[in-house]
């Protein structure tokens, strides 16, 4: 199993670079970055750097980590432009990019920037077409596509990505549509979830794969969960009594390791740890170090 790090995008670039260098030096496998333009909150004045620019700068200064968006909203950029961006960054990083893509969900940034938001169904239809566009540009010498939302006219994308293929990751757990799109197009898939949620969603994804005669094992799976790791029994008991709304791993290092083993047993290929709950830098670094030594590499 791979272990990757997800820094909160509200942090200054210098802090993200420091953390990227640290996790690379201590044995983590990847770094993911959220592609949003502002917080999903009433007050959107907090600093919020752009994702692909940040990843390009990070990718040029760390030499080993896989890097990717978790995930790019398809509504933000034409998929052909996004494919060109990803392919260029794949060359900058010598083949370490994952293009994470989703339908787009954060309404306030669409409203503020004048980006059409559409209905959920319409956003998902666009995501399906966008995957076809991106795959064609990555592989075809001359790509043509005539969809309801996107069109290509003998389009070129050169240079092609270093990776063949450059992995396309679909983010989301919608069982009726998103997982069907994942089965059709994705090289990797990501969802927030506990082991129980991953078990349920993976079974549905596998069924969608079999329905189109695709081997489910050809899609790598990754999970995201908040991390609360501590030796403070009272602190942990309080969290378990009132657990966070998002999926979370709560426990001592030994208990966290047991939960990670559950993910691995299900066939999860990568666990992504956000720093959203890890506190200030010194505390965060200490927890990351302890996780990689006592949980990930045990």
Number of strands: 13
Low-confidence stretches: none
- Write the CATH architecture name: Alpha-Beta Barrel
First-residue to last-residue Cα separation: 12 Å
The CATH topology turns out to be TIM Barrel
What order do the SSEs take from the amino end to the carboxyl end, as H and E? Answer: EHEHEEHEHHEEEHEHEEHEHEH
Mean pLDDT: 97
Helix content: 40-55%
Structural class call reads alpha/beta
Number of domains: 1
Word description of this protein:
The chain has an 8-stranded parallel β-barrel, surrounded by 7 helices. The chain has a two-stranded antiparallel ribbon with strand order 6-7. The chain has helices spanning 13-25, 51-59, 79-92, 107-113, 120-139, 178-185, 195-211, 233-241, 253-266, 281-296, and strands at 2-6, 30-33, 66-69, 72-73, 97-102, 143-146, 151-155, 168-171, 188-192, 220-224, 226-229, 248-251, 270-274. 43% of the residues lie in helices and 19% in strands. The protein has one domain (12-220): Luciferase-like domain (TIM Barrel). With 298 residues, it is of the alpha/beta class. The longest helix is centred in the middle third of the chain and has 20 residues, at 120-139. Helix 8 links the parallel strand 11 and strand 12 (248-251). Helix 3 (79-92) crosses helix 5, helix 6 (178-185) crosses helix 7 (195-211) and helix 9 packs across helix 10.
């Amino acid at each position: 199993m791979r272990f990757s790090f997800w820094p909160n995008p509200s942090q200054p670039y210098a802090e993200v670079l420091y953390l990227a260098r640290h996790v690379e030096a201590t044995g983590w496998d990847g770094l993911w970055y959220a592609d949003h333009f502002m917080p999903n909150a009433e007050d959107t004045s907090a600093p919020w750097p752009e994702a692909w620019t940040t990843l390009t700068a990070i990718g040029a200064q760390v030499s080993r980590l896989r890097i990717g968006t978790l995930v790019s909203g398809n509504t933000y950029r034409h998929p052909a432009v996004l494919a060109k961006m990803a392919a260029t960054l794949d060359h900058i990083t010598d083949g370490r990019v994952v293009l994470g893509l989703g339908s787009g969900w954060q309404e306030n940034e669409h409203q503020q920037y004048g980006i059409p938001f559409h209905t959920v169904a319409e956003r998902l239809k666009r995501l399906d077409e966008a995957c076809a566009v991106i795959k064609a540009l990555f592989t075809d010498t001359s790509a043509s596509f005539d969809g309801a939302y996107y069109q290509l006219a003998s389009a070129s994308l050169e240079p092609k990505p270093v990776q063949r293929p450059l992995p396309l990751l679909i983010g989301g757990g919608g069982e009726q549509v998103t997982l069907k799109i994942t089965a059709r197009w994705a090289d990797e898939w990501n969802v927030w979830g506990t082991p129980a949620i991953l078990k349920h969603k993976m079974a549905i994804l596998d069924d969608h794969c079999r329905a189109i005669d695709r081997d489910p094992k050809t899609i790598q799976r990754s999970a995201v969960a908040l991390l609360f790791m501590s030796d403070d029994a009272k602190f942990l008991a309080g969290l378990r009594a009132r657990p966070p709304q998002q999926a979370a791993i709560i426990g001592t290092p030994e208990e966290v390791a047991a939960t990670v083993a559950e993910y691995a047993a299900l066939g999860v290929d990568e666990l992504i740890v956000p720093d959203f709950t890890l506190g200030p830098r010194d505390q965060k670094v200490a927890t990351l170090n302890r996780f990689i030594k006592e949980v990930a590499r045990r």
